[in-house]
Design a protein that fits this description.
The chain crosses the membrane at residues 20-40, 61-81. Helices cover 77% and strands 0% of the residues. With 84 residues, the protein is an all-alpha fold. It has one domain (4-83). The radius of gyration is 18 Å and the shape is flat. The protein starts with a helix and ends with a helix.
Length: 84
């Protein structure tokens, strides 16, 4: 969160002062770096795959509810910061 907040504040300041090109470049480079980090993370997770994980049974309702709560909390956090 500490790396996201300063970048978000800079992008907000740039868009308020009509520096759209620089803010677009900052957003696109950030998305590119997130893509690179996700590729590194997924490749490291696939190499550490264990066959014993298939035997664990998870409750689908539990996983879906946790996933929905995390997604709605992200939306709720952005609404709090925009309207507070």
């Amino acid at each position: 969160f500490l790396g996201f907040l300063p970048k978000w504040l800079i992008i907000n300041w740039l868009t308020l002062n009509n520096f759209y090109l620089i803010s677009f470049m900052l957003i696109s480079l950030t998305l590119f770096m997130i893509f690179i980090y996700m590729q590194l993370m997924f490749s490291s997770l696939l190499f550490n795959y264990d066959e014993n994980l298939n035997k664990i049974k998870y409750n689908n309702f539990y996983l879906i509810s946790i996933n929905l709560m995390s997604l709605f909390s992200l939306i709720f956090c952005t609404l709090i910061f925009n309207f507070a």
